[in-house]
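Write out this protein's structure.
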Amino acid sequence: MKYLCLVYSEEKALEGFPDAECMACGDALRASGHMVAAEALQPVRTAKSLRVRKGRVSITDGPFAETKEQLAGFYLVEARDFDEALQIAAKIPPARVGCIEVRPIRQLSP
């Protein structure tokens, strides 16, 4: 089953965080067969939020919600169950300075 590990952190906490650690984590997950995809996101100041209401598009600067921690990236992993997904998420380096939200992927039904 696939699980999305969303990486949340205060941007300042990640400023000095070494990319090499995250890349090594990704390499290890790939080697173990757990990695599906992973990406880091640009700073929240580069974000735009889009809504469509009654056929009209509204675009605003920044993320939808004002929060202390921002979405910084994600890892999409394959795990046999939720427990294994949590064990994998615990190895994601930014967990030491932020939070990893782990969510099962829902299959869409036709």
